[in-house]
Design goal:
alpha/beta, Rossmann fold, 2 domains, six-stranded parallel sheet, 14 helices, 16% strand
Length: 357
């Protein structure tokens, strides 16, 4: 393995490999920001899964987005494309089998990853843990990715925050969807509270009735409430709408860029630990995030905007999260009272007002 120092003065093309979800992609943006400011004249590209790639539309700190789907043909096509671009350095921020294969397929002289990665020998620079770089435990996902850059001499100690671009075309199509749903455009609705009542696992989903009570509480504070989810979650959103004694507008047909645009127009986000929560944080929306099984240190909002994580402490937290192994149901999130969320909303709104938001 060639672990020679990288001569950054000769680097012209850098690839960042970051597969998987919305949250993972949002939390890669601090690394892209750090790279672009360190190498302003270099080409900085990122490899993403195709369904999440629109999240970085218009993002100023990445020159090209390479998208792959789950098929084998797409992966081999991407491998050839990456090889032909002759990258000088590839940072593998993911570490999974596909990400490592594509990192190796790049043929880059400098292929950077962590020692604990599977098939780590396919990298030319193997680095110790992020904890070793930051010299502390309880590392955030964004810091874990930034540490790979920091180990190779890129300034990251200021820990850039997550960031997303808000596209004008997304704002136009978002407004059109509001109008077609019989709503005023977001700018004409008054203060908007954006609710996201779903998550990847049941261990991360607060009760729908409690989200309904939250919408009622927000109404007393003068908010128009909009709940969002994917197309296959429309029944859940309709259930929330039925459970609340105040109007809730539901949207389940937004593209990812439209969701980013809507989050940027919200005065407040309230939801489960999810990719949508990370989107809200990245556009500077004050946030209250309900946590259950997740590791709060690792997955909290990476933002300077006012935010709070609300949770009930359990000795089994954090856990893998797909199912509850300690109880017959995920009590850590289901027992969280709405009053805790209401109090957090008040504090976040007060902080936002103090900052002139």
């Amino acid at each position: 393995m060639d672990d020679a120092a990288i001569d950054w003065s000769r680097v012209q093309r850098v690839l960042v490999v970051r597969l998987r979800s919305i949250g993972d992609t949002v939390l890669s943006t601090p690394s892209l920001i750090a790279l672009k400011r360190f190498l302003p004249s270099a080409q900085i590209d990122i490899l993403l899964e195709d369904w999440v790639a629109p999240l970085l539309d218009g993002f100023a700190h990445a020159d090209n987005i390479i998208a792959i789907d789950a098929g084998t043909t797409s992966r081999f096509t991407a491998a050839r494309q990456i090889r032909n671009r002759r990258y000088d350095v590839v940072f593998n921020l993911h570490g999974g089998t596909t990400a490592t294969f594509l990192t190796f397929a790049s043929g880059a002289r400098h292929r950077v990853g962590y020692r604990h990665y599977q098939y780590s020998f396919l990298h030319t620079h193997l680095l110790p843990s992020a904890e070793a770089f930051w010299r502390r435990d309880n590392i955030h996902s964004a810091e874990q990715q930034l540490a790979l850059l920091g180990f190779k001499g890129i300034p990251v100690n200021d820990r850039p925050r997550s960031e997303l671009a808000i596209g004008e075309s997304a704002i136009r199509t978002l407004n059109a969807k509001f109008v077609s749903a019989g709503l005023d455009p977001p700018d004409d609705l008054g203060p908007i509270a954006l609710l996201h009542p779903t998550a990847a696992f049941k261990t991360k989903e607060w009760g729908l009735d409690k989200f309904a009570r939250t919408a009622e509480f927000l109404r007393t504070r003068g908010f128009a409430t909009i709940a969002v989810g994917s197309a296959n979650q429309r029944d859940v959103l309709a259930g929330l709408q039925s459970a609340a004694k105040v109007p809730i507008h539901i949207l389940s047909d937004l593209t990812i860029p439209e969701l980013v645009a809507l989050a940027s127009k919200a005065r407040l986000f309230v939801g489960n630990d999810s990719g949508v929560a990370h989107i809200a944080a990245a556009v500077g929306t004050p946030s209250v995030i309900v946590f259950g099984s997740s590791n709060r240190d690792h997955w909290g909002p990476w933002t300077d905007a006012p935010s709070e994580m609300v949770f009930e402490p359990f000795s089994c937290q954090p856990c893998a999260g797909r199912t509850c192994l300690a109880f017959d149901e995920p009590r850590c999130i289901l027992t969280l009272p709405e009053e805790k969320v209401f109090a957090a909303i008040e504090r976040v709104l007060s902080t936002g007002n103090d900052r002139g938001q």
